[in-house]
Amino acid sequence: MQKKTIKDVDIAGKTVFIRVDFNVPIKNGVIEDDTRIKGALPTIKYAVEQGAKVILASHLGRPLKDKKKAEEKGLPYDAGKYTLKPVAEKLSEYLGAAVAFEQDGNIGSLISAMNNGDVVMHENLRLDAGEEKNDPDFAKQLADGIDVYVNDAFGTAHRSHASTEGITHFVDTCVAGLLMEKELEFLGKALENPDRPFVAILGGAKVSDKIPVIESLIERKVDKLLIGGAMAYTFFKAQGFTVGKSLVEDDMMPKALEIEQQAKDAGVEFILPTDHQVVDSYDPINSRKAIQIEFTNTGLVGLDIGPETIEIFKQALEGAKTIVWNGPMGMFEEKPFDEGTIAIANAVAEATEKGATSIVGGGDSVAAINQAGLADKISHISTGGGATLEFLSGDTLPGVAALNNR
Ligand code: AMP
What's the gap between Cα 75 and its chain centre? Predict the structure, then answer.
């Protein structure tokens, strides 16, 4: 670990700004999933125990963008959806202590009234246009009176925003939080020095989003690359198969062929599905059947990998020592097209039990792991979607680059 962490610096009695990821789903003021709040607790508790004055800040959704969209379309805008107040309340419960929450810009007075061990929370950072613009004035305002900056929000570290990058120009001591440290350790090892065999599984709808990560994995000579989800159809169509009404990114077909060639040249086993679950687009409920890829006809839509592919993917995972998985194997939100994704979730968990280090990232694959009750059987569930992919693509994340080196 190249970056300093909160444990490398003295924070007792210091004013510590922790950028957390409290971007949680909230409906009618009720938090529907508090995984991210729980994920931030180790760093917050550590800072409190050390006697720091703890200031927390996060974004929640995209208030200004949503407001603009609503105005353009003449739709109502619900400002109540974007306050972090329910999160401050939930956090008070978890910490067993009051968390003072910014209201009407009173953060300055809250901070000046703090004692060691107190926790104060900013309102949603993205309510200020300066956050996403990385406006230096806003960054300077956030940094006012701060001794130590801690970034514990890996999921937004790929963005150069005021609270992830700008602020670091105004604070001398900038370090990683404990959740960030865990992300950097697991993902860094997979990127730089993975135990082998190293198997990557990629799925989801869009190849275009995943090209940099596929290329980086091939460059780093992942041993096997398994491709599932609608992404596979762009490869199939590029090879000349008929893929019916399945999702394809036509403009990505030349790139798909190039990637297959790159994999071949690098000696990477590139494994595409051999069968899939298809439906007739006119009768999706009753027409589900598993067929070989080559028999797809023009009226069918492929929505999941088939049983033969599940077996092939399972076998490919046997004996793996490092597994990275990002993206569902099919349209997993709709039962029974979650079967492929759930089967892969189980296979990854099994391989982990047999000694593999498994890393699962991206909202959908993580949701599948949780749905299957396998979260504690995975070595590392990454909190990042885009950030995880960018990191594994070999890109330097601005929010990480800005932290002090050891
Ligand atoms: P992505 O954002 O590219 O990771 O794609 C995730 C989405 O891909 C999920 O909402 C899935 O429902 C969708 N998806 C995966 N496979 C398929 C498929 N075969 N057909 C339609 N949608 C799919």
Answer: 30
